[in-house]
Specification:
single chain, three-stranded antiparallel sheet, 10 helices, 7 strands, about 10% strand, binds zinc ion
């Protein structure tokens, strides 16, 4: 699951960039249906028509018959939740100080990630009261921490013992509440991208990172020439090679 802060902008970007890669097409269609409902004022028939048009344009091998039930479902549920249009969350001075006091890089990234998630939860629902409902693996992936399941639990319980978080066991899921929010303190950091929260923390601590010139994701700067993340560099190299081949072919054919 990818956390999208601003759903309206996300959909607009996908629509305007035909080459953009959509990792999970069904999640995107569900969101697109909500966008069409809330932003374009469409209702059931109109939404289904647009979902179909999108698939015809963008999904090679699309078979309309396979998707009718799905479109029906997405169109029916489109009006249920408004779009989430969050531009970012604000972290305060006291919150940063609390995290720094951990004096452990991995725990700091974990605490920072949980803090950002709690704040985003509060933005989406003012009655959220600092709860985080993501799974452990989602949290650790955003925190940019690799650890065994045992280690994941252990690190969380360290934060719990320090009084930074609390648990609540519900029927099938584990929720956790972040206890160190200090909204009244001075604003110190603005976070508008949740893809690599752990790296956002490292960047704040002064480690060298760049934002990919194409997709904006944070990546470690291991050379001064680095401009792109791994995925975008591949596309960029393929594109340059294509241009070079074209030029070369044209030059040859002039003789
Ligand atoms: Zn990139």
């Amino acid at each position: 699951m990818k956390i999208i802060l601003n759903e309206r902008n996300y959909v607009t970007e996908i629509l305007s960039d035909k080459s953009s890669e959509i990792k999970k097409i069904s999640s995107f269609l569900r969101l697109y249906a909500r966008y069409l409902y809330h932003e374009k004022g469409l209702r059931k028939t109109g939404i289904k028509k647009e979902l179909d048009a999108f698939m015809r344009n963008r999904q090679p091998g699309y078979r309309p018959a396979d998707w009718q039930d799905t479109f029906e479902r997405y169109a029916a549920g489109a009006g249920k939740y408004p779009l989430c249009n969050c531009d970012g969350i604000r972290v305060t001075k006291k919150e940063l100080d609390t995290i720094q006091q951990l004096q452990n890089k991995v725990l700091e990234r974990l605490a920072f990630t949980l803090l950002c998630l709690a704040k985003f939860g509060n933005f989406k629902n003012p009655e959220n009261h600092n709860w985080v409902t993501c799974s452990n693996s989602e949290i650790y992936s955003m925190a940019c921490i690799t650890a065994s399941a045992f280690e994941k639990d252990r690190k969380l319980s360290v934060l719990k013992d320090l009084g930074l978080i609390a648990y609540a066991k519900k029927v099938n899921s584990l929720s956790l509440q972040v206890l160190f929010l200090e909204e009244e303190s001075a604003p110190a950091l603005w976070i508008s991208d949740f893809r690599k929260l752990g790296y956002e923390w490292n960047l704040y601590k002064g480690e060298p990172y760049i934002r990919c010139a194409s997709c904006g994701i944070l990546v470690k700067r291991d050379s001064n020439r680095k401009k792109y993340c791994k995925d975008c560099a591949k596309i960029s190299t393929a594109h340059s090679k294509f241009l070079w081949d074209m030029e070369h072919r044209n030059a040859k054919s002039e003789f």
